[in-house]
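Subject: complex prediction, re-run

Hi both,

The earlier run crashed halfway through, so I resubmitted it with identical inputs.
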Amino acid sequence: MVKDVKEILKNNSLSITGSREKILGLFLEQPGALAHGDIEKRAGEKFDRVTVYRTLQTFVEKGIIHTIPTADNSIRYALCKDDCKEGHHHDHHVHFVCTKCSITYCLDDVVTPELKLPKGYTSSHIEVVAEGICKNCK
Amino acid sequence: MVKDVKEILKNNSLSITGSREKILGLFLEQPGALAHGDIEKRAGEKFDRVTVYRTLQTFVEKGIIHTIPTADNSIRYALCKDDCKEGHHHDHHVHFVCTKCSITYCLDDVVTPELKLPKGYTSSHIEVVAEGICKNCK
DNA sequence: AAAGATTTTGCAACTATGTTGCTTTTTGTT
DNA sequence: AACAAAAAGCAACATAGTTGCAAAATCTTT
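This time it finished cleanly. Structure:
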């Protein structure tokens, strides 16, 4: 079930380091998205804040994770599906934030709907975030 | 065209002060949304940062403005339509961020689409942010 | 397997952003 | 005009995020 962390790093031509293994491991072992703060907490204060920032940034650049904008304005990160390549994300799915447990889910099966924009507007990307109660909390 | 700032404040039972008049004026005199930083800059460094924060907070509570989550994770504020009441917002429209001029628009006529969520999920609020080129920049 | 080049980490310092408590000033009310 | 209530301003603090640089770890080459 759990994909090999080292494998993923190698495939993205990243050197295998302790922090990268641990941080990537955190993403693999749980369903929701993680905010920067979550990672620092769950990792047990092992590494520096700066390292977390830089690692997340690297993962985003490589297309391993993607960012999710949330209403409360904290950036969250979640694993990308395999069709994300370096510098080119394809996360055209809807995100769901549970107001009870505050877990953020990627609803990979729910595709972002088409929008009829007013004349003159052209959209290249549409972000949809739904808020409510998730299946575990109802 | 420009609504009376004092009128709006009175209608929301807010005392009329210099900062509130100026900040509300900024929102009325331009089409897009404003971030906290924009307000501090455009106001010409007249008042304290804290005042801006508290004024914006008051306006949000009263339903005069609403917040817009953006991809770059900076909160933006925009005027609410008249059907927003104290503590109860109705901003069920789509927001549009221009990648060129980075102005954020409220597309009041574009209603947030319905979503078919997976079983077990119930959404109370859906936020849609489209990114692209606006009518002035194309 | 060791040496050297390259990355990554961790530290310190700094900037930006946002919050809280308290005093002074302004506003609304009588 | 006088008083009570609310808002503004100030200082101090808290959190988030960035940058430069030296030390440590990783990768590569032999």
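Chain A touches chain B at residues 67, 69-71, 73-75, 94, 96, 99, 107, 109-110, 113-136, 138 (CB under 8 Å).

- K.
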